[in-house]
Recover the amino acids of this structure.
């Protein structure tokens, strides 16, 4: 078991397999952030990903989610998915869905049935502004393809005040007849993304807006859920709120992260990182390094962003850009 000093057990590992993406979402990889992707030598190769994953599984990890960048742009992604699927874990994926149709048969063959799709607007023009790409129709078609093939699909929307927040009711309408789980995510600060607290549309504001349009009920959350879950009356699907900024869920967090260059982060907002890849290449025992990294996990939000939202300054946060951490 991987237990920290606050008695939280960690059995969920998110592995970023690339820092490249076929979109350029402004909150993840802003336009003024250089497209400086990692050199191949700096990244974990396939054998290294599998070797490191095995250590985590042996230490009690039961779920692995592949992230990026966009994980499906990595040329060896088929091999990575196939080999990880052999472990006794739940294997999941976060994607922007642009390439899902090319890989959906592989997902079925390997038992990967849980897919999170990032989609921040249901308007093609707003989608293009936010992502800097013209893939809206392809993404929508591939979301429907996943639903038609019986996948468990979560739709992740980063809510930006005065940009897309008025689309929240339209997203919830998608859950009327589809077994779709929409999740509204408060805008979070990362290096270079120009975060300002005034752009955060809070969980309280989200619920107030939803109440103007729907009658809904609170659902029971699972022990390690990062979201508060709700269901609109007579809807097939559900919606949820991930309130990292205004009401964090850190007390029950069970997540660890591995960046594409093999650095372990015990929290999305952690300052420190453990260099797992360097240790592997040096022939070191990874177990004590991983255990120490988990033990050093802070109580909440990496020990950063304490206090009132208005007092948080993005410039003082020590972290990477979102694209280099992994979704």
């Amino acid at each position: 078991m991987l237990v920290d000093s606050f008695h939280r057990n960690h059995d969920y590992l998110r592995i970023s397999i690339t820092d490249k993406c076929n979109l350029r979402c402004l909150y993840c990889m802003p336009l003024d952030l250089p497209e400086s992707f990692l050199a191949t030598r700096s990244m974990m190769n396939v054998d290294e990903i599998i070797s490191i994953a095995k250590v985590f599984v042996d230490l009690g990890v039961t779920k692995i989610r592949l992230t990026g960048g966009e994980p499906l742009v990595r040329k060896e992604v088929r091999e990575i998915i196939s080999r990880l699927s052999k472990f006794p874990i739940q294997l999941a994926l976060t994607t922007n869905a642009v390439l899902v149709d090319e890989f959906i048969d592989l997902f079925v063959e390997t038992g990967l049935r849980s897919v999170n799709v990032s989609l921040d607007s249901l308007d093609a023009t707003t989608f293009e502004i936010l992502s800097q790409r013209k893939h809206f129709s392809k993404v929508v078609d591939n979301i429907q393809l996943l639903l038609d093939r019986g996948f468990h699909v979560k739709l992740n929307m980063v809510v930006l005040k005065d940009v897309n927040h008025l689309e929240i009711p339209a997203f919830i309408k998608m859950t009327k007849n589809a077994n779709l789980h929409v999740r509204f995510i408060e805008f979070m600060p990362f290096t270079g993304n120009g975060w300002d607290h005034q752009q955060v549309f809070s969980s309280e504001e989200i619920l107030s807006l939803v109440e103007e349009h729907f009658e809904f009920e609170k659902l029971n959350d699972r022990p390690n859920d990062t979201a508060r879950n709700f269901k609109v009356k007579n809807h097939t699907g559900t919606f949820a709120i991930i309130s990292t900024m205004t009401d964090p869920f850190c007390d029950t967090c069970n997540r660890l992260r591995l960046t594409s260059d093999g650095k372990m982060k015990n929290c999305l907002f952690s300052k420190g990182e453990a260099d797992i890849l360097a240790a592997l290449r040096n022939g070191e025992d990874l177990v004590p390094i991983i255990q120490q990294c988990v033990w050093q996990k802070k109580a909440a939000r990496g020990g950063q962003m304490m206090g009132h939202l208005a007092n948080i300054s993005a410039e003082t946060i020590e972290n990477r850009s979102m694209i280099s951490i992994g979704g």
Remarks:
- The two ends are 24 Å apart (CA to CA).
- The chain has a mean pLDDT of 92.
- DSSP finds ten helices and twelve strands in the chain.
- The chain has one domain: 12-325.
